[in-house]
Write a structure and sequence with these properties.
four-stranded mixed sheet; binds 5-S-methyl-1-O-phosphono-5-thio-D-ribulose; seven-stranded mixed sheet; globular; Four Helix Bundle (Hemerythrin (Met), subunit A)
Length: about 350
């Protein structure tokens, strides 16, 4: 277990660690309504594909507070479901978790109390599954990390981005806990600095040796220090293996290919979206101009300059060496082998 929880169901409310203010401040926020959960996801108080999914599941539980009589169940939960679905468009875990919750409420007939219990149980199950899944992913990825490895990582994929343990950072954590002598280079991950602020904070607490670099330094670092592997997370993996992840992942994959460094995507199977044929069909979230044009409230871009701020990009499957999941390591051809994971 980590020394913190990114997300926790406590006394009927959802308590989240505010990821906007880390590492300066360890501030917990209590969310008591579905509207507050949707806003927390949108504002990135809670972030990271698996954590977003779990938060949304509990958002549905909170929405049941608004139900005064049985006839309102479908209407209120449908509205809550739609509100949560509109919070962030790229991470498929959000939709996956909401689909699971919907299967519970859609055809339910019984009392509101019974429904609330069932929904709470389903959300708790999604939460617990996330921890176990991550630990299995970490074990599955172990052989890919040699002793003495120098690893490059992008964004934050640790306990903060999940319920606990993490995906790509989980593989890193497991290698360290197994006694391997590793060193991690962390892309700072502009514009919201999840690498510099969040991944460095997590690795620091875990005692894992690391160095923060600016995103543009990855080529130099590969050439100069001989990176052994790149590990990144994913927000949505299309049926052909094209992978949406934090902006800058695609650039990193190109640099890794040039330097012949294996490039691994680490994700639970809940991030695989067989209904999306390829990366071109993935909706890429665009966020506020101010994330790029300001640093800590100080304007760094002239007012009249245009800004483009996509939160994610798509790495083509051909640049991905393998995808590490809880069900095993998937290698190309992804179209065929991803499908096999689902039997
Ligand atoms: O915009 P964010 O911070 O939610 O983006 C997070 C990422 O891109 C992660 O790499 C991804 O969600 C996987 S987290 C296990």
């Amino acid at each position: 277990m980590s020394t913190f929880r990114s997300i926790e169901w406590k006394n009927g409310n959802l308590v989240v660690l505010d990821q906007r203010v880390l590492p300066q401040e360890k501030r917990y926020i209590e969310l008591s309504s579905v509207e507050q959960v949707a806003k927390a996801i949108k504002d990135m108080v809670v972030r990271g594909a698996p954590a977003i999914g779990v938060a949304a599941a509990y958002g549905i539980v909170l929405a049941t507070k608004q139900i005064a009589e049985n006839e309102q169940i479908k209407k209120i939960l449908k509205e809550a479901d739609q509100l949560l679905r509109s919070s962030r468009p790229t991470a498929v875990n959000l939709f996956w978790a909401l689909d699971r919750m919907k299967r519970v409420w859609e055809n339910f007939s019984g009392s509101v109390d019974e429904l609330r219990d069932l929904l709470e149980r389903e959300a708790a199950e999604i939460e617990m599954e996330d921890i176990n899944t991550n630990k299995q992913i970490a074990k599955n990825g172990a052989d890919l990390v040699p002793d003495g490895a120098r690893i490059l990582h992008h964004c934050n994929t640790g306990s903060l981005a999940t319920v606990d343990y993490g995906t790509a950072l989980g593989v890193i954590r497991f290698a360290h806990e197994s006694g391997k002598n590793i060193h991690v280079f962390l892309d700072e991950t502009r514009p919201r600095l999840q690498g510099a602020r969040l991944s460095a904070w997590e690795l620091d607490q875990l005692g894992i040796p690391h160095t923060v670099i600016v995103d543009g330094a990855s080529g130099l670092v590969m050439r100069k220090f001989g990176i052994n592997l790149v590990l990144v997370g994913a927000d949505r993996i299309a049926a052909n293996g094209d992978t949406a992840n934090k902006i800058g992942t695609y650039n990193l994959a190109i640099v890794a290919r040039y330097h012949k460094v294996p490039f691994y995507v680490v994700a639970p199977t809940s991030t695989i979206d067989l209904n999306t044929a390829n990366g071109d069909s993935i909706t890429i979230e665009e966020r506020n101009r101010s994330e790029v044009s300001e640093i800590s409230g100080v304007k760094i871009v002239p007012e009249k300059s245009e800004v483009f701020n996509p939160a994610f990009d798509v790495t083509p499957a051909e640049l991905i060496t393998a995808i590490i999941t809880e069900k095993g390591i998937v290698r190309p051809p992804y179209g065929e082998n991803l499908r096999k994971l689902f039997g």
